[in-house]
Each structure stands twice: as structure tokens, then as C-alpha cells.
Amino acid sequence: MKLNQESKGKVNFKLVYQTTATIAAAVAISLSLPKNVSAANLTDTSNILSADPGSDNLARQFQITLDQAVTDKIPPGTTVGIITPQGTWFGTSGVSNLATRTPVTPGDRFPIGSITKTFTAIALLKLAQEGKLSLDDSLSQWLPEIAANLSDGENVTIRQILNGTSGIYNFLDDDSPINQEILNNPLRDWQPEEIVQYAYDKPRSSSWVYPNTGFILAGMVIEKATGSNLAEEIRDRIIAPLGLNNTFFAQEEKIPGGFVNGYRDIDGNGSLDDVSAVNLSWAWAAGAMVSNTQDLSQFSKALFGGELLSQDSLNQMLTFNSTGDDGIDYGLGLYSVDFDPLIPGLGRGFGHGGDAPGHNAFMFYFPERDITVVSLQNSQPPNDVNPAIPILETLLEEGHRGNPKSVPEPSIVIGLTIVGAGKLLGYVRSRQK
């Protein structure tokens, strides 16, 4: 599936998402990849654009823009967080529950889909930093019985399962029977070993494959290397040190109140169905986490500010590989996207999008402008809707003044932009070809 480019250079993004189960399509755009990403000097999240004399007006414009996006595109509710050198803003619009009409709050928790991959990749990189494993270890060193059942599994490395170059079959691909099985039994509690079996005896592709199966395997490697539970490792290494009090691993940790209901038009009749009860264990290390805009903003700030990883590890995370589709490259649990065709002057962004039953998520950092944006919403509409996009347009047009930041000399030139364009069979989106 190829991306269309509309008039005035505007790219028709499908929420600019890379989902738990969807491969993106893109147009080729020139992009410079830096050798290093310097630490970001982001302001304290307690400030609401306080350093900008026009902040009150800008905040009002943000809220008007957000309210209009919800009205026009009809997601039940959404929340957006923006962190800039001028300050921060967290806004909400709509409801978290259609039955009770409870308003969304900035602290509400949403499933974040494939943004989970970024957490999983960081946990593995931390283990590599500690010398507990190497990204160039073969999969058979850690999971010999699993590797033996995968085509050419003994020659797959940990790095390859993280960046999609392993060629291992995506267990959520269009032809996978797991899609129908999740639809038939959405409450089933899946085990990682059951999930990876859908890739057994499948030919290893010579092309890039979206690493849903790779990240399930990555979670299993983490557990094997530590003798611990994946959710505990992510909590001990990322969540607890950063004080992310609203971030959890669904099905493995108890989630307190403030969990937003998820909605999707399952039968295509125009009405939204509540799919909140779907068990997320089928996505596990590839997409089962829950968070909110405040925590994800802090997480992004810590990652790109050098708080979570060494510079070498961050550089490895930001080493991108071609997906074989025009305009898409993938690192270790991160994308790099040139947003200029969509929002001129914004530059490239590093981050991920996510899809979970009845929810969409978006988290990107823009080093040229020193902007972090997170948006979460509780629906999976069949139209192009991402409240972060009009908010970013408003920010650049009216609020984010001054010259763009200089960036390091490029080491690679790649063409890149993302559009998530998937079809969920009932609850799960699968790759568009």
C-alpha cells in the first residue's frame, strides 16, 4: 500500500502511527540522520508555557484546536502533551466513557500499543550495557528450542529481532490464524510461547518484516537473561527510576482506576463498540503496556536526554534500517520520520506510534525544535485523525518562535515518513500490503 501526497505538500498520514499490527507506507523524503542526539534541555513539566509572553493565548489556541479535532473526527476522548523550550501544555477533550460521559483528564491511562516496543528495546539495551548479553548474540544462544523451530533461526541475532531485519514472520500478518482466534476469544490469556508458535515453519523473509514476533522473542530473551518477569524488569529498569506512576504492563500488573474505555466500530455500522475488556496478553512485549501523556512525555525526555541509556546505546537505537517500503526506516524500537511535508519547519522526529483495541497512541521527539509531543485517544476510527498534528501546526504557526536548533552532521541520508494504514480483524490490525 503506497502513501498518497495531497496538495500543498501535505502528506496523508493515517494518524502517523506505526501500530502493534500494522506496517506503514511512505513517500521518499530527504532526511539527515545525526551521528549523535545531544541531551535535550526540556523545561520542567509543571510550567505551562510560562516562559512565553503569549502563552495564555497559545494555550487557548491549543485547546480550541484540540476540541475541534475531537468534534470533527469524533474520537470519544483524547489527551495531548507538548513539551517545548517555552514550557509545557497538557490538554484534554471529550470523554473517557461513553456510557457515563466522564470527561478525560490529563492523568487518565490508555493502552499505548507498540510504544511498548520502545520500553522493551531499552530493557534489552540496558542488559547489553551491563554485559549480561550482546545484541549480536544469536537467538539460539538464549532460546535454543524456539530458534530450532524458526526458519534459519540459529542465524538470527538479538539486534535483528529488534530492528525487523530478522525476516521472522509477523504473527499478526494478514494470513495468520491468531487474528481470528483473538476475535473469537478476546479474553484469552496468551503465553509468549503460544504467540511465537505462529511463526514456526514460516519461511524467513529476505525483506524487512515488522517485528511483532521479534519483540515477543525479545521479551523472552530478557526473561531468560535475568531469570525474572519482563514486567518486573521494565519496572525496575525504566518505570521506577523515572517515577512513571501511571505506567503499567497490562495483564501482568494491577492497573488502578483512571483506565480509559476503548471504542471501535467493529461491524462497520457507524456506531462505536466498547472493546475495553480485550485481554492484551497477545501483544505482550510488542504492545501490552498502559500509560498516560505525562508519563510518556517524561519517558521521551529521559530517553533522548541521555538519562536512560549510554550515548553508545542510544546511537545504536537510532541506527535505522530500510524496511523495503519507500520512506520507512526502523531502528531498535524507534522510527525516524521527516514531518516537513506535513508541517513545514518541524523537521524529523524520533519515536513510535501504537494501536491497541479501541485506542491509538503517538509519541515523538523533534530534535531540531526540541519539541516532545504525545497524544492518546480512546478509539480506532477509520479516518485520518491525530490530534497532535493540528496542535503541532498551531505551535509552529503561533507559539514556537525562534530559530531551529542546529543538529549534528549527517551520517546517513534516508527518505522517511510514516503512515499507519492497517485493518484490524475485529480487534487486531494486520499488515497492509
From TrEMBL:
Protein name according to UniProt: Beta-lactamase-related domain-containing protein
Q: Signal peptide position in this chain?
A: 1-39
Native species of this protein?
Hydrococcus rivularis NIES-593
List the SUPFAM superfamilies.
Answer: beta-lactamase/transpeptidase-like
What keywords is this UniProt entry annotated with?
Signal
PANTHER family, per database record: D-ALANYL-D-ALANINE CARBOXYPEPTIDASE, D-ALANYL-D-ALANINE-CARBOXYPEPTIDASE/ENDOPEPTIDASE AMPH
**Keyword Signal applies:** yes
Its ancestry begins with: Bacteria, Bacillati, Cyanobacteriota, Cyanophyceae, Pleurocapsales
For the Beta-lactamase-related domain, which residue ranges apply?
A: 76-387
| Keyword Signal carried by entry | yes
* Highest taxon above the source species: Bacteria
Supply the InterPro entries for this chain: AmpC-like, Beta-lactam-related, Beta-lactam/transpept-like
User: Per UniProt, what is one Pfam family of this protein?
Assistant: Beta-lactamase
